[in-house]
Design goal:
Two copies of one chain form a homodimer. The first copy, chain A, has twelve helices and 14 strands. By secondary structure, chain A is α/β, with parallel strands linked by helices. Chain A folds into two domains: 115 residues, Aspartate Aminotransferase, domain 1 (Alpha-Beta Complex), CATH 3.90.1150.10; 239 residues, Aspartate Aminotransferase, domain 2 (3-Layer(aba) Sandwich), CATH 3.40.640.10. A seven-stranded mixed β-sheet of chain A has the order 2-10-9-8-5-3-4, with helices on both faces. In chain A, strands 11-14-13 form a three-stranded antiparallel β-sheet, covered by helices on one side. In chain A, a hairpin with an 8-residue loop joins strand 13 and strand 14. The first copy, chain A, is globular, with a radius of gyration of 20 Å. In chain A, 56% of the residues are buried. The mean pLDDT of chain A is 97. At the A-B interface, helix 3, helix 4 and helix 9 of A face helix 3, helix 4 and helix 9 of B.
C-alpha cells in the first residue's frame, strides 16, 4: 500500500500509520516553544484532547512514551508505603504494578488469567478485605492479550469504596469509549502513537479534582514528571521542559481530523473494524485468544492452533505482503499473534490482512480442521 | 528567510532550525519499533552518536527532553543520602541540584556568580574539605548565562579525587569540543534539539565503565529511565519503551550530515559564529554578559545597558525581522537577551541578526555612549 505515504500495512497495536496530512505537518520547521505561535497550538491541542477525553478536568502533555506516562501517574499520586490494588490481566497490568513497587508502593496484586477480563466482583472483595488500600491501578485495554476491561463496572466498585482510580488507557482512549468524567477516572494515561494518529513521543494525562488532591499529598520523588509544574506552565501556554514539538504539530492536525469524524463515529468505526477482524479470523478456522465478550476493539489476539507457527506467519506476511503484525509478549511469545486496528484504519486495511492470512496460513503450518 | 523550509531566523539556544533534508525524513511513515528496519536505523544512529561523543563507551537514547536526561543521570548513579557536589553557574546548574535533592541526595552546592565560569580550584577545595562527597554534577555549557566551563580542568580535579563526574552537556555536545573518554566523563547528557539538528524529544546519554559501576549500586527509584533496561534492549537493536521514531529518523540524516562536515570543522564553525556574534555585538556598543574568557560558542548573552529594554528589542526583532532571540531567565529576566548559534547556523544567519540589531536598538531605548 502506498496510500497517504504508507509503504506497508502497519497493523501492530502502535505505532500506527499516520495520514498524509499528519506526516506533512511533521515536516514543519521548528519554532520557539516559549513563543506565542507554539502557545496557540498547545492551547488548541489541549482543548481538543479534553473533548476527546470527555473531560472538563485537566489534560497534561508530557514528553515521553506511554510507560513514562504510567510512571508519571504513579509518582504524582502515591507515597512510598501506600497500599495499592493492582488489577492485572496481562503484560501492561504487570508493568503498572512493577512501576508502583519500584517507587515503594505496597502493591496488592489482583491478577486474572491472560485472555480474560478483570472481574469487578473480585475487585469488590479485595477492597472489602483490605480497607488500607488507597488507590486502584487498572488497565483499560490490555494490548498484550487483546482484552478490554469493563471499566464502567470497575469504576462503580472502586468509587463505591471511595478509592483513587488510576487507569492505563494508553491503547483505548480515542478509539474505545471512555468518558473520563462520567466514569470518575482520577488519572487517565494515554500515548500519542496509539489511537491518536500521531508519532510516538508524548504521553497525555487526564487529572481529576480528586487526582489533584492526591497529587498534593503524594510524596514519591518526582521532578521531570511533576504534574504541578506541567499545569502551572500550561496556564501560560507552555510546557515546563522543551516539548516534542513535532508530535504537537501532528496533534494539531490529527485531533482536528478526529473531531471532524466525531468521537461516536470513531468508536463505532473501531468496533466495526474489530468485528470484521474477529469474524474474518474465525472464518479462517483460527480461535481468538481473548474471551470474546471482552475482546478489544483496538487489537485482536489470535491463538496459534492446529500446527500454526505464528512467528513464521508474521515473517511471511511482512516479507511477502508488506503487512506488519505483532507476535506475543513474554509467556505468549510463539503462542499468539496480534492484529492492530486502531487509529487510522479502514475496512480495506483489514480485508488486506485477512486475504493475506488466508494465503499464508498453510505455509506457516496451519492445518484447518 | 525561507531557505530550507525556514520561515524565520530562529536564534534561540534550542530548539534550533532543521535543515530541509532532516525535515523531509521526519515525514516518513511510522514503522514497527521492534522490527529489523528500525533496528538498523537505531544501530547506525547509536554508532554515529558514539563517534560524535568521542567515546567507546555506551550511548543510550531515551525518549524525553534534556531535563528528563538529567533526571535519568541522577537516578541511575546515586542513592538517597549520597553526598554530591553540585557546581552551578546558572539556571541549569541549579536545576541539576534540584533534581538530585528531589530524589534524596545530600547536595553540597558550589555556586558561582552568574556570568562567570566555575573555578576548578574552588572545586578542589570543596572536595578536599569533604571526603564524603561521592559524585560531582557539572554543567558544561550554561545556556542561561552563555558561559562554558573549563571541563578539562574540572575533570582533572574531580578525577584526581576519584569521584564520579556527571555532566550536563545538553547545549555543548556536538558543537563544542567534548572528548568524553579523554576527559573521563562518567555520565554525559545531551538533547536532540540542541547542536544535533534534530527536533526535541530525545535525550542521549553517554555512560562510562565507572558510570556503570555506580549504576549497579545506585538505589534511587527508577523504571522508565533505567539505563540497564536501555542497554539490554539496545543489544537487540531496540529501546525498552516505544521511542520517538520521528526524532530517530531525523538523527539518521542529521548525524550523517555532521560526520560529513567533520567534528573538528563543526567545532571550528561554532567558534567562528560565536566570535562573529561577540565582535558584532560589541561593535554595536553592547556589553557581553559573560566573562569573555569563558564565553560560550553556542549561545551569546548580551547585557542590557544604556537604556535598552531587552524585551522590547526581542519583540521588535520578531515582529519586524522574523528573527527570534531569547530573553533572560529567572533573575536575568529583563536584564539580558540571548542569541543562539548552535546546530544549523551560518555566517549569513548571524549577519542578519547583527544588522537587525543595529536597526532596532534605538527603538528599544538603547542610547550608545
Amino acid at each position: 500500500m502506498s496510500e497517504g505515504g504508507r509503504v506497508e500495512n502497519l497493523r501492530i497495536p502502535g505505532p500506527t500509520p499516520l495520514p498524509a496530512e499528519v506526516l506533512k505537518v511533521m515536516g514543519k520547521q521548528m519554532i520557539n516553544h516559549r513563543g506565542a505561535e507554539f502557545g496557540r497550538i498547545l492551547n488548541e491541542v489541549t482543548a481538543n484532547l479534553k473533548q476527546l477525553f470527555q473531560t472538563k478536568g485537566d489534560v497534561l502533555l508530557l514528553t515521553g512514551s506511554g510507560t513514562g506516562g504510567m510512571e508519571a501517574a504513579i509518582v504524582n499520586t502515591l507515597s512510598p508505603g501506600d497500599r495499592v490494588l493492582s488489577v492485572s490481566i496481562g503484560v501492561f497490568g504487570d508493568r503498572f504494578a512493577s512501576i508502583a513497587r519500584q517507587f515503594g508502593a505496597d502493591v496488592v496484586p489482583l491478577n486474572f488469567e491472560w485472555g480474560k477480563a478483570a472481574d469487578p466482583d473480585a475487585i469488590r472483595k479485595a477492597l472489602k478485605a483490605d480497607p488500607g488500600i488507597k488507590a486502584v491501578l487498572v488497565t483499560h485495554n490490555e494490548t498484550s492479550t487483546g482484552v478490554t476491561n469493563d471499566l464502567a463496572s470497575i469504576s462503580s466498585v472502586v468509587k463505591g469504596f471511595d478509592k483513587l482510580l488510576v487507569v492505563d488507557a494508553i491503547s483505548s482512549l480515542g478509539a474505545i469509549n471512555l468518558p473520563v468524567d462520567e466514569w470518575r477516572i482520577d488519572v487517565t494515561i494515554t500515548g500519542s502513537q496509539k489511537g491518536w494518529m500521531a508519532p510516538p513521543g508524548m504521553a497525555m494525562i487526564g487529572v481529576s479534582e480528586e487526582g489533584w488532591r492526591a497529587q498534593a499529598k503524594a510524596k514519591m520523588p518526582r521532578f521531570y514528571w511533576d504534574f504541578t509544574r506541567a499545569k502551572s506552565y500550561l496556564e501560560k501556554a507552555q510546557t515546563p521542559w522543551t516539548p516534542a514539538i513535532t508530535t504537537v504539530y501532528a496533534f494539531s492536525v490529527s485531533l482536528q481530523m478526529m473531531l471532524a469524524e466525531g468521537l461516536a463515529n470513531i468508536v463505532a468505526r473501531h468496533a466495526r473494524m474489530a468485528k470484521i477482524t474477529r469474524e474474518g479470523v474465525k472464518a479462517l478456522g483460527l480461535p481468538l485468544f481473548a474471551d470474546e465478550r471482552y475482546a478489544s476493539d483496538t487489537v485482536t489476539a489470535v491463538a496459534a492452533s492446529d500446527g500454526l507457527d505464528p512467528k513464521k506467519l508474521v515473517k511471511n506476511l511482512r516479507e511477502g505482503h508488506e503487512i506488519v503484525l505483532s507476535g506475543g509478549q513474554q509467556t505468549l511469545d510463539g503462542k499468539i499473534f496480534r492484529i492492530g486496528h486502531l487509529g487510522w484504519v479502514s475496512e480495506k486495511d483489514i480485508k488486506a490482512v485477512l486475504s493475506a492470512l488466508k494465503a499464508e496460513l498453510p505455509q506457516a503450518g496451519f492445518r484447518s480442521k
